[in-house]
Amino acid sequence: MTALIDLASHLAGDPSSPAVKTVVTEIAAACARISRVVAGGAILGNLGAAGITNVQDEEQKKLDILTNDLLSDALKACDPVAGIASEELEHVETTGRQGGYLVTFDPLDGSSNIDVNVSVGTIFSILPAPEGREPEEADFLQPGRHQVGAGYAVYGPQTMLVLTLTSGVVGFTLSADDKWLLTHASSTIPADTAEFAINMSNQRHWAPPIRRYVDGCLAGKEGPRAKNFNMRWVASMVADVHRILMRGGIFMYPWDAREPGKPGKLRLMYEANPMALIVERAGGKATDGVTPILDLAPSKLHQRVPVVLGSANEVDQVAKETAAG
């Protein structure tokens, strides 16, 4: 059996700047600690609601707060980091340093699943910080193509770290002695798929193009798509996207009529942008239904967007349905 290389060895051969590698190393170490906290669950008294809501007006779990504090503290102590923004915090936090990088993150994506022992994860994005001054909130509002790196950790049967820096997508698995070992040297998403992920309970609220697309999938071989589809839905973006990265598929979290004033559910800065970079680097596509996610210009820190990502030909099919009105 060939010996697996660790994260440090992989980063040594990557053309990213030493500062970016330092940030990634710190995030990876924090994710290893989060893995232990999540795995402790009820034994450590970490399950259940915290009794407060976050800036998104969502009930926070105890683990939302614990993981946010853990990752925030680690990044604020990391020399190349000039500022952070979290899904769980109303405003950005700066470190007093100039230049370097900004990090946005969702510390525990899918935390509503934690009490029932379903896979959850951490999503992060690394952006360049302004030179010569401390960053402000507006400095975080960069299109996704400005990201110098992005990734996620998924805490499931195995804990994995998926990462993209200068090119490609790689995956590491956390060993029993807390080492990140390279187990997926080049992850790619096939252009075609017969699997879709969406919350079907919202079907009656979708716009007509999404209904038509899903109806076409459900019609199977006898329908307009002339093939049978399977449906999967974990309700944890990390878990759903990880499945797509491993074997293909399409993930959709579209606009719906329940809250017509909100363009979508997922957060551009903490979820959509980093996942879109990973998906594109793996050969897939990621859009809001029409426009590539990475080309969207953020207007506010906690901006929400519709998300359609995964196998390229299926994402294109959704765009065709949307263009048809």
UniProtKB/TrEMBL annotation:
Recorded metabolic or biological pathway in which this protein acts: Carbohydrate biosynthesis
Keyword Manganese in record: no
Ranges for domain Fructose-1-6-bisphosphatase class 1 C-terminal: 189-320
Reactions mediated catalytically: beta-D-fructose 1,6-bisphosphate + H2O = beta-D-fructose 6-phosphate + phosphate
Annotated Mg(2+) 2 binding sites: 106, 109, 271
Recorded GO MF terms: fructose 1,6-bisphosphate 1-phosphatase activity; magnesium ion binding
Compartment annotation: Cytoplasm
Required cofactor(s): Mg(2+)
Superkingdom assignment: Bacteria
Keywords: Carbohydrate metabolism, Cytoplasm, Hydrolase, Magnesium, Metal-binding
Domain Fructose-1-6-bisphosphatase class I N-terminal, chain residue ranges per copy: 19-184
Similarity comment: Belongs to the FBPase class 1 family.
Quaternary state and interactors: Homotetramer.
Protein name in the entry: Fructose-1,6-bisphosphatase class 1
The species this protein was found in: Caulobacter zeae
High-level lineage: Bacteria, Pseudomonadati, Pseudomonadota, Alphaproteobacteria, Caulobacterales
Name of the gene encoding the protein in the UniProt record: fbp
